[in-house]
Amino acid sequence: MVPHLVTTLTGPINELEQRILESMPAIERWFRLEWMEHTPPFYSDVTVRNAAYKLAPVSTGLYPDGFNHLIPTMLPLAVQAAMAAIEKICPEAKNLLLLAGPNTQDSGYLTNLQRLVLIFSQAGLNVRLGSLDPTLLQPTEVTLPDGSQLTLEPLLRTPRRLGLKDFDPCTILVNHPLSEGTPSVLENLHEQYLLPPLHAGQSRRRLSQHWQNYEEVAKKFAKLLGMDPWLINPMHALCADVDWQPGAGREGLHTQVDALLGKIRRKHKEYGINDKPFVVLKADLGSDDFGVLTVRDVKDLEAALAPLVAATAPGAAPIDVIIQEGIPTCEQLHRAPAEPVVTMIDRYVVGGVYRTHAQRAMDESLTVAGAEHVPLGFDESHQLPKPGARPGASAPNRFYMVGVIARLAMLAAAYELEATDPDAEVYD
Amino acid sequence: MVPHLVTTLTGPINELEQRILESMPAIERWFRLEWMEHTPPFYSDVTVRNAAYKLAPVSTGLYPDGFNHLIPTMLPLAVQAAMAAIEKICPEAKNLLLLAGPNTQDSGYLTNLQRLVLIFSQAGLNVRLGSLDPTLLQPTEVTLPDGSQLTLEPLLRTPRRLGLKDFDPCTILVNHPLSEGTPSVLENLHEQYLLPPLHAGQSRRRLSQHWQNYEEVAKKFAKLLGMDPWLINPMHALCADVDWQPGAGREGLHTQVDALLGKIRRKHKEYGINDKPFVVLKADLGSDDFGVLTVRDVKDLEAALAPLVAATAPGAAPIDVIIQEGIPTCEQLHRAPAEPVVTMIDRYVVGGVYRTHAQRAMDESLTVAGAEHVPLGFDESHQLPKPGARPGASAPNRFYMVGVIARLAMLAAAYELEATDPDAEVYD
Fold this sequence. Notes:
Two copies of one chain form a homodimer.
Chain A: E1 4-5, H1 12-22, H2 24-37, E2 43-50, E3 55-61, H3 75-89, E4 95-100, H4 107-122, E5 126-131, E6 140-143, E7 149-153, E8 156-157, E9 162-163, E10 171-175, E11 193-195, H5 207-225, E12 236-242, H6 251-271, E13 279-283, E14 293-295, H7 301-311, E15 319-325, E16 331-333, E17 336-345, E18 348-356, E19 372-375, H8 378-381, H9 395-420
Parallel strand pairs in A: 4-5, 4-10, 5-7, 10-11
Antiparallel strand pairs in A: 1-16, 2-3, 2-17, 6-7, 8-9, 12-15, 13-14, 13-15, 16-17, 17-18, 18-19
Helix pairs in contact in A: 1-9, 5-9
């Protein structure tokens, strides 16, 4: 079942789908060559939005926690991908410490952890679960919805290594986005493989770095396919040092919002799109996160900012703000807006779900409390498009396209992690 | 659905299943370490037999042609495995020439080819089909049962390369066992990747080499699990220079058949097995193939050989014969004996089917005309055993065990291809 597209099925997306299908071997080879030069993130999840006139990623996570949403028939793919990933990073690996976030009251998250334990055990590792919750002092059994149990254990840090009682892992896999900063137990671990690396932590990432890399990837890919990169790229601009203090001048932000809205308007005109353009504002640096603000007209900017300005402490330092082209989603499930989220391990798509939210509009973020997840469509053969099927009519073809776009964002994250690696050797 | 086991479910196989499940991470790690030292065959299929008291491979093919039997939901696994294999062997690969055997009247084989084209296209290669049939002189369209078409093209050989008209492949994948010898078009191709290599050809392989390597692998694996390797290893003996001429002395063969029957009898006594032992005789070298002869008592040996002896031309050279412990199959589908056949690409299990034959007995080979194939059980999660399920009661657990044994045989084939590689560098 393909989620219902609100708009007509004869838009640019269908041309894009057709072009992507026709170019399948070239696309896969292109990815293969990219992976010769770049290392994919260990795992990732990418949210993609289909606006009917364009199809673009809107967020790239490096700590995927939706393994509970994958349907069981897809798990062998995850196991195989995990085998390939481990073999590449650390073939001798024996013990894996999986680090859980503190949100272990959430039964969905616990099932996600259970799935990860299963996947990495099956890939040939002894897996134990450590907790990033510093208040957890004893091994603690938690019960899952299916009645099975997981044991969360307190971490044991020595000057050089991190482990559990009687468990010295060679590899540590973090399954929490570290949005609140880097826990000190994870600092200075030079003898163990820490996955993902600390500079992938949500608080340290800069969206502008990611989207600049994505733009580069999208341009290369668009060149391969002979198409306009805008069809897959959300335009963005960075506005440095925005001062949230009441009364502060934010002329730079006003100018840039207006300029980006103008750029979108011109693109809409070029493609005959009637949708009203909008932009979203986000903190560039993860640790400055203020959520997602939607702005449709520069006149409304200050009104949109008002709650944020009101909440800003006197003397708070200015922050960098990224302004992004807003991508509405035209897909619906049960009349609620829906967006596919693709989960990857290493370079492989291992599953996908639809995120839906009955209380949100098609031009709003669905990543807020109340979102539901529907494992869907990816169950059969997202990797096996059906050449010859009418564009837009074949679920496998639609999902193949979504998987390609998600992998482009994942590739951009690979570029990003290389660029931001504090230990990278610099050749000049 | 697990095929029905004729015998009791409380035999050594269930202990084996339990031990294999408990040792899953150790087993997978062991394989991973083996793959650091050895290169898996590009693809393979292994027939495994479950005798209730032992579970062992009985044949290891290096030109799997049963991709038509795989259920479509398993194909993404094959694509992912193909991606990993290609990336390792030749990441820049662009054009793949898939070489079909001459048996293109067989609609099952054509569907197998169609599946291979799909898998490798999806893995990022431009795939075209060449025919090993030297009488095919023009591109020929053949129609598949589903109404789609495949084009078989005549080969174009230049002094150094093999290709098709307007198609110069960097990689050539043979999908025909080359039982009749090596086609001259495949000789001396030093600039292209030929997969599998020529010394994997059926006519050139020696069963004794394979089974000696398998014994070595089985011993290593049994040591890892702390068990008797006999539980997974069919014993064998090699009898060199057997003369098929009428009246020739075949005392050596008699002695060895009797000795192997005695060894099996002792093992049966050790395990309290009531089955009557039998051995099978096969030509050691593929090009000497005379089928499979079953012998239950050395007194019956000459009678079993009679048709072969009668058919031997005067002056025919003696050949090497391998004598193997016969493994009956205790699995049944619709009251016909059944045996699982596991298909692998690179190191990964990508699917499996049951071969059944209504006209054959449980101690006879099922690989004869009239065999049927039932894609089964492997559909869901052969890679995802369910720890905790009662031994013998869980299809995923049964199939995981079968997949492990099949991979041991595939690993033995890796050893074999290294040992028989004519271009191998020798370090002494």
